[in-house]
Design goal:
Number of helices: 7
Number of strands: 8
CATH topology of the largest domain: de novo design (two linked rop proteins)
Strand content: 15-25%
Order of helices and strands: EEEEEHHHEEHEHHH
Number of domains: 2
Bound molecules: zinc ion
Largest sheet: 5 strands, mixed, barrel
Structural class: alpha+beta
CATH superfamily of the largest domain: Recombination protein O, C-terminal domain
Radius of gyration: 20 Å
CATH class of the largest domain: Mainly Alpha
Helix content: 25-40%
Distance between the termini: 46 Å
Shape: elongated
CATH architecture of the largest domain: Up-down Bundle
Length: 245
């Protein structure tokens, strides 16, 4: 059976002299592995390179195994390669995609999110830290791990006072009264509003907000710790990015 889909290459591994295995976030099948025979060099090499966004024609063999028949690049995000910091963040997004996106299921929203994130990183008009936090929190939300943003998880108050606290292992927020002696991350009303916005806004609007530098830094800390706690993973690309900033 032939599968026609667009997708972004999130990993590539060499295999023998000219072949490689690529991992792709596809619109139609989510994250899949594809044998790309002869693609290390030759006409399919750029369309199957890391972070290329391409139209793909795939032969589905047995189970979840795919063989590349044709690949045409739609966008190659060359500008990411001009800045190592930005490139390491883009590679971190690729790692997150692998951890959090569906398998053998449609992944429209996830693919749009990653494409928008990479586009914004290339443009450089939004702070990289904002793009990072939105990508982390929205991917978690799409994967079913939206933090409990509505109210204090203990008393149900609407968290309008300035002091708010976040439990990054459970995704719960607490008012000052209920935070008690728990080990929680402090969070402001402004940062909570940003988190609510990222989780709940329509897909095409999620990057359209601003925060102070301190707010962005707090947001980044919260989204990152929550993500690490949910996935239970350490991300080498993230460590590298943080060394560069
Ligand atoms: Zn409370």
């Amino acid at each position: 059976m032939t599968v026609l889909t667009d997708g972004i290459i999130i990993n590539e591994r060499p295999l023998k002299e000219k072949d490689k295995i690529i991992t792709v976030l596809t619109r139609e099948k989510g994250v899949i592995s594809v044998f790309a025979n002869g693609a290390k060099v030759g006409k399919h090499s750029s369309a199957t390179g890391l972070l290329a966004y391409s139209d793909l024609s795939l032969a589905s063999t047995k189970g979840d195994s795919y063989v590349l028949k044709d690949a045409v690049p739609k966008q190659v995000f060359f500008r990411l390669r001009e800045d190592l910091t930005v490139l390491s963040l883009a590679q971190y997004f690729a790692e997150l995609t692998y951890e959090l996106c569906p398998r053998e299921d449609k992944a429209d929203s996830e693919l749009s999110l990653i494409l928008n994130s990479l586009h914004l990183l290339c443009e450089g008009k939004k702070p990289a830290s904002l793009v990072k936090s939105v990508t982390e929190l929205r991917l978690l939300t799409l994967a079913g791990y939206m933090p409990a943003v509505e109210c204090c998880s203990e008393c149900g108050c609407d968290l309008t006072e300035e002091a708010i606290f976040f439990n990054y292992t459970t995704g719960e927020f607490f008012c000052e009264k209920c935070a008690g002696g728990k080990r929680l991350l402090p969070c402001s009303v402004g940062v909570l509003s940003a988190i609510r916005y990222i989780c709940l806004a329509p897909q095409n609007k999620i990057f359209s907000f601003s925060l102070s530098e301190d707010g962005l830094s707090a947001l980044s800390d919260i989204s990152e710790r929550y993500l690490k706690s949910i996935t239970g993973k350490k991300f080498k690309t993230l460590d590298f990015y943080k060394k560069m900033i």
